Predict the structure.
Amino acid sequence: MAVLAGSAHGKGIGALLFSATVSRLADQSASIALVLLVITRTHSPRLAGLVVAAFTLPTLVTGPVIGAYLDRLRAKRALFAANQATLAAALAGVAVLAGHAPGAVLIVLGLLAGLTAPVLTGGFSSLVPLLVPPGGLRRANALDAASYNVAGLAGPALVAAVAGAAGAGLALSAVAGIAALGLVLVLGVPMPATTPRLSRGAPGHGAAAPASGSLRATVADGLRLLRDVPLLRSTTIATTLSQLWQGLLPVTLPLLAVRLGHPVSAGAWLLTALSAGGLAGSLASGRLLAWRTAPAVLIAAMAACGAFLAALAAAPGFDPALGLAVLAGAADGPILAATLAVRQRTVPLDRYAQTAATAASLKTGAYALGAAVAGLLAGALTARQLMLLIGIGQLLALVPFLGRQATSPARRLLPR
C-alpha cells in the first residue's frame, strides 16, 4: 500500500494503512464471527442480531466525542491502543461465555467491544491528510477505502474457513487474536498531531486553526458542519441510510446460504465475495473520481449496488449468489472513496477527525439498527424476502441524496 513510493510520506502512509487494515480486519470479521457463534451455541437469530447491534451501537454516542478528542489530542497512540486491547478482550469473552452465560452478558460484551470503534474508521482516516500532501490524497483515499475491503475480504473468509474446520468458537478466538496483533502494530506507526503547520483549509470555510475551547464546543462545531454544509449533509444522509440496509446482511446471508442448501457458515463466504468485489471497486475509485464528480460516483455506485443486492434474492443457487455478491461489492467499492473526497473538500483539517468519526458513527449506528431489525424479522420473513428488502432499501437510500443534490450549490465544490 505504498503511496508516493520512495518518499517519507509514502513510507509513513504505507505503515499506517497496513496497521489500519489489520486493525479493521478484526472489526470487519467480528460481526459475522459473533453471528455464527451465537447462532451455533444458542440457536437464536434474534440474540445474534442483538449482539451484533450491541457491538456497533455505542459508536452513535462515542463517535463525535472520540473524533473531537482526536482532533485535540497530540499523543493519539494511546487511544488507538486502548481500542485494540478492549476489542480483543471483549471478543475473547464472548468466545468463552457464549452458550454458557445469559444473553445479556453477551450483549454487554458486544457493547464493550464496540465502545471505541470510531478510531478504526474516522480515526485512521483522519490521519491520512496529516501524512499525505494534497496532490496524493486521491490515491491515498482509494487505498484507505481499499483497506476496508481488504479487511472485509480476508475477515469473513478467515471466519468461514476456521468455523468450517474447527468451529465458530475458535473462529471468534482467532478474530480476538487479530485484534491483539493490531495492538502491536499501532504502537509503531506514525500518528502526527493536528498542528497549525499541518492544518489546511477547506473550500468555503477559511483556514483551519488548531482546536480550541472546550471539548463540548469542539463536538458542537463538528456537528454544525455536518448540518450546515449541504453537500456534506446530503452525502452523510445517503450513506447512513445505505448502511442501515446493509446492516441486515450479516444475519441475512447465513440464512440465505442455508436456503441455498449450504451450512450456516457459508454465509461468511457470501460476505467475502461482497468484500472481494468491494476491493476491486475501491482500487478503481481513483480513476472514477478523476473522471466524474464524487456525487455522480456516489449516485451510480449506490444504485448499482442496490440492484445487485436485490437480484441476490432470486439467485438460483449458491454459485450464482457468489457472483452477484461480487458485483454488488464492486458497485459498493467506490462509495467510501467518494465520501472521503467530499469530506476533504468541505471540512477544515482541524475538525476532520471529529466530523469523520461522527459521520462514521452515524453509519455504524445505522448498521447496528439494521442488524437488530434483521434479527427481529428473521422469524417473519424468508431469507430471499430479506435480501429483496435490503436491495430495495439501498435504492431508496438515494432519494434524500438526489433531492438535496438537485438544489445544492455546494455540489460545484468538487471539480471533475
Confidence is low (pLDDT under 50) at residues 1-8, 196-212, 405-416. The first helix runs from residue 8 to 42. Residues 130 and 192 are 7 Å apart (CA to CA).
